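fyi for ur records
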Amino acid sequence: ESQTVDSFINGQVYLGTNTIFLMPSYNGYYFDNNRNELDSTGEWYYDDVTQTLYYQISSGQNPLTHNIESTIFQNGITLLTGSSFVTFNGIDFDQQYSAGVKLLSGCNHITILNCRFTNQYKCGIELSNNALNLSISGCSFSNICGDGIHSTGNCNGFIHANSFIKIGINEGYGLNEEYNGSAMLFLNLNNSTVSNNRTDSTGFAGIVCNGSNNVIDRNLIDHCLLTLNYGGGIYSYTTSSHNNLIENNFVFNSTGGFKGLASYAAMANGIFLYFGCDTVRLINNLTANCNQYG
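which gave:
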């Protein structure tokens, strides 16, 4: 979680908005985006009032010899509300602030095939409500601060044979949401298949899947929960999650991130079903090296 500091008075820090979770005195925190702390090579600070970018280079170097890049676009491609029967094939998306591809509400029969998503700040693909009959296959996602695929509304489709590497592993960056750092996050997925995907090194889960009548099959999830500490490699947590099949998956090295905690408390699981999930079948899954339960 990240918040903007509103003021600092008499040793007290005041934030601009309420935090998602309480901040007891024993939890850790850190400050960034302060020009006074710009003292190490590669650090930068942007002053939005003067529209000035400050960048720290090594002592004695000429800044004119450096190639410095920054993004000016929120999204690589935005599909407008109600778009249908669109295919993206073999496109590289790099360094967007919000998403490589963003689907607005009501998009239908969208295929994203063999595309590469790298260095997005929030997510590789963002799905708005009622994204139906999707197919996302053969894509790679890497070095993304938030989620690989991020869907908070109703959607369905076929998510197959994608790879996710280094998703959401920088604390305090990406999506300022509870489950930031998931390779695939679906908060209302129904009548869908998520299969043969591979995730390696995620801040939170490999797959977050709420919804009904889904098949989660033959996925390989390794090194998850590297920055957060309460979840699982495959995670489902609402009463709307029922009649799902989770089979033939491999979940290894569910670690748990403990920075900022008062004491070590292992709450990283292989497969975690929570808060009212029912009629979920688990068949032939293998979990290993999980800090709490398999």
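The first strand starts at residue 5 and ends at 9. thats all i got for now
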